[in-house]
Amino acid sequence: MKVRTRFAPSPTGYLHIGSLRTCLYNYLFARHHEGTFILRVEDTDQTRFVEGAVENLLKVLAVFDMLPDEGPVLPANLQKPLDRDLTDLTDKGDKGPYVQSKRTELYQEYAKKLIDTGHAYYCFCSPEDLDKMRTEQESAKLAPMYDRRCLKLSPEESQAKLAAGGSYVIRLKMPRDRKIEFVDAVRGKVSFMGNQIDDQVLIKSDGLPTYHLANVVDDHFMDITHVLRAEEWLASTPKHLVMFEAFGWTAPEYAHLPLILNADKSKLSKRQNDVSVESYLDKGYSKEALINFVVMMGWHPGKGSEQEVFNMENLIAQFSLEGVHKAGAVFNPEKLDWLNHTWQKIKYFQKLDHEALKLNSSVKIDVSKNFDHAYQFENNDTTNKFQKIRAEILAELSGLNNHPQMQTDSEKLFRALLVNEEKILQNPAQTWELIAYLFEDSKLNPALLQNPKMGVDSHEKALESLKFANEIVNELTENSDLNEIKEAFMAKIKAAGRKNGEILWPLRAALTRQEFSIGAFESLWVLGKAESAKRLAEIIK
RNA sequence: GGAGAUAUCGUCUAGUGGUUAGGACGACAGGUUUUCAUCCUGUAAACCGGAGUUCGAUUCUCCGUAUCUCUACCA
After folding, report:
1. A301 and A317 Cβ atoms separated by less than 8 Å
2. Hey, which bits of A40-168 come out as E strands?
3. Is A74 helix (H, G, I), strand (E, B) or coil?
4. Is pLDDT at A446 greater than 90 in this prediction?
5. Are A392 and A418 in contact (CB under 8 A)?
6. Closest Cα to residue A26, out of A69, A77, A84?
7. Across all residues in chain A, what is the average pLDDT?
8. Torsion of CA A284, A290, A292, A295, to 10 degrees
9. A126 beta carbon < 7 A from strand B?
10. Which of the nucleotides lies closest to A256 (Cα–C1')?
C-alpha cells in the first residue's frame, strides 16, 4: 500500500517549533517511502480563527520546501487576507476539501451514523450543568467524567428535546466494559481501560465537529496510512480507535512523537521559549539549521552513526520510525546557534568552491573538519579577484548589497567584510552593527589605550607608542595590503627592540575606539592610510 | 484524584547480557593571537533506586521513585 501521511495543524497564527518537527517527520516518512504528504487545515474551532494564519502557514512550509502533495493552495495573486470561510482556497489532490470547515456536512452525516448504530448519543446538558457536575465530582475526589445522564433519555425524549430546538451536542459512547489496545509504532503495545475514558463530545453545539471526529473521518476518507503526531494525543487514541471500529474502517498506524520540552521539562511553551518558527527565521536562523536542529530532537539514524549535520536529502534517505525516541527532548538554543553557524559556513563555502573553480579549475582547496575551506591559487591576480567575489558574497549574505556605503566606498566595505568573515558567518543579520565603527566616528575612552599586561600602564606610554606607530603609518601607501602593513610593523617593532603588544594594543584602540574589535593591522588596512592617520592624529594632537 | 507514557554526562544522543559506556553542544583548562572571537589541544561530566533472571545486568523481568502528558462543546 502506498504511504500517505498528513500534517494537520490548526491555523492559530504562527507555526510552532513542535509543529515544524511533526510536519518534518510526516514529510520525511512520506518521501522516504515515496508516498504522499498531505496538508489538512484543522479549523473547527471558530473562536480560535486567526486572520492570515493559513496564508502564513503555507508560506512557511514553502520556505522549508515542504509544500504538500495534496492540500489547500493559495490563490495566485492574493492581495488581502483570506476571509473566514476560506472560499478563495483551492485544492490540490482529489480527496479534498483539505480544510475542515468546508467539510461540516460530512462530519454531521457520520455523527448521525454513530447515533443510529448506538455508538453515540445526544446530550442536552448545558455548560453550567457540566461545570456543576465536575466540581461536585472533584470535591468528592472522583475522576471528573460525564455521568451519562443524557444517555438515560429514551429515544422519544431525545427526539422531543431536539424538536423543541434546544442546543445539544453529540457524544461518543465509550465502551466501558473492555480494554482498548493498540500498537504504537514508537511505543509498542499500549492499552487503556474503556471505563477510564470520558464520553467525548463529537459535534459541538455550534454544529461543528471536535478534533476527534473530524480527525477520524478525514483520516479515513483521505486514506491516511500513518499518523505521526505528538505524544499529547496518545491518551485520546482509544477514542479514535473506537470510532474507526464503529464505522467498520481500518485505522491507520499511529506513531506518537516525543514532546519538545522547556528547560524544566514541561511541554515547550511560549512562556519559557520563543516557539515561533517565523521568529527564528526573522532572527536570521537558516531553514537548514532549523530543520537539522528540530530533527535531532526525537530522532537519530542509529547504527552507531555519529553524524550531526544533515540536509534534507540525507534525512529522506535515513529517516525511519525505528529511529524515533520515546522520551521528550529539551530545547537547547545553544545547539541551534552552533548549527546555524555551521550551516552558514557550509553554504558559504559551497558558493566559494563554485566561484573558485570557475576562476581557476586547478585551485587547491583545503577542507578542515570544522567545515572551513582554504583556497590556494597559482597567482596573486586570481587571488585578488577571488577576494573580491568573496566580499561580494559576504555583502549579499549580510543584506548589505544596497547599503549606502556600497555607493560611497564599496572597496572599504569589502575590506571590512573580509576581515570579519568568521563573525559574519555566525550571524549575518548583524553584520552592519559589527562593522559600523569602521565607518562612523566614535569618541575614544582614553583608558582603552592602556593595558598594563602589554606594558602600557600610563597615558604617556600609550601616546609614545602611538607616535611610534604613526611614523610607520606615514611610510605606508594608500595601496598597502594587509601583508605589507603587517610586515612593515613587525620589522620596525623588532628593529626597535619593542614588544608587539606595547605598540599594537594602543594602536588598535586608537583606530577602532572599541573594547573588542578586529586587529590593528586589519584596522589599518580597512580604514586606509588617510583615515588611519586622521584617527591617530586626533589622539596624538 | 484517575489514566497513560518515559527514564544514559548540564543538554541532544550512540551503544551493549561481559566496552576504558562513544559522539555533539555547552562548560572548564592550556596553546595561538595586539583585544573579543576564531582556531588547535586537552579535562571534567552519565547508565534513577531496589529486587529477580543470569557465571555476569546499564542492557531482560517485576516493584518502586521521579518526571511529563492527558483528564474541555481547544487542538
Report:
1. no
2. 71-73, 90-92, 120-123
3. coil
4. no
5. no
6. A69
7. 93
8. 170
9. yes
10. B5
Number of Cβ within 10 Å of residue A318's Cβ equals 19
- Look at residue A141 in the predicted model and tell me its pLDDT: 80
Q: Which residue has the cell 558567518?
A: A425
**Bases in strand B with any atom closer than 7 Å to a protein CB:** 1-8, 10-15, 22-26, 33-40, 67-75
Q: Say yes or no: Cβ of A521 under 7 A from any atom of strand B.
A: yes
In this structure, is the CB of residue A501 within 7 Å of any atom belonging to strand B? yes
Which cell numbers in the block locate residue A497? 627592540
Q: Is A461 a catalytic residue?
A: no
What are the angstrom distances between the C-alpha of A336 and each of A264, A287, A331, A350? 18, 11, 9, 21
Whether omega for the bond prior to residue A155 falls within 30 degrees of 0, making it cis, is no
Closest CA to A199 of A129, A137, A120: A120
Give the whole-angstrom CA distance, residue A298 versus residue A315.
13
Contact A224, A1 (CB under 8 A): no
The helix/strand/coil state of A519 is coil
Asked whether strand B has any atom less than 7 Å from the CB of A42, the reply is: yes
In this complex, the answer to whether residue A373 has its CB under 7 A from any atom of chain B, a nucleic strand, is no
Say whether A181 sits in a helix, a strand or coil: strand
Residue type at A104 in one-letter notation: T
A59 neighbors A36 (Cβ within 8 angstroms): no
Element (H, E) at A211: helix A211-221
pLDDT of res. A269: 92
* pLDDT above 80: residue A78: no
The full set of domains in chain A, from first to last, is: 4-102+260-323 (3.40.50.620), 104-257 (3.40.50.620), 338-438 (no CATH), 446-540 (1.10.10.350)
Please give the torsion angle defined by the CA atoms of residues A64, A70, A74 and A76, in that order, rounded to the nearest 10 degrees.
100
Nearest to A466 by CA among A431, A427, A423, A498: A498
pLDDT of residue A76: 84
**C-beta atoms surrounding A189 within 10 Å:** 8
d(CA A134, CA A498): 84
Looking at residue A311, its pLDDT comes to 96
Straight-line distance from CA A212 to C1' B48, in Å? 36
pLDDT of A286 strictly over 90: yes
* A181 vs A183: CA distance, rounded Å: 7
Instruction: Please give the pLDDT value at position A84.
Output: 81
Cell 560611497, located at residue: A408
Asked if the model's pLDDT at residue A541 lies above 80, the reply is: no
| Mean pLDDT for the stretch of residues A121-138 | 91
Buried b (16+ CB within 10 A) or exposed e, A135-151: eeeeeeeeeeebbeebe
- ipTM, 2 decimals? 0.95
The stretches of A254-375 forming alpha helices (DSSP H) are 277-282, 287-296, 312-318, 333-359
- Residue A442: pLDDT over 90: no
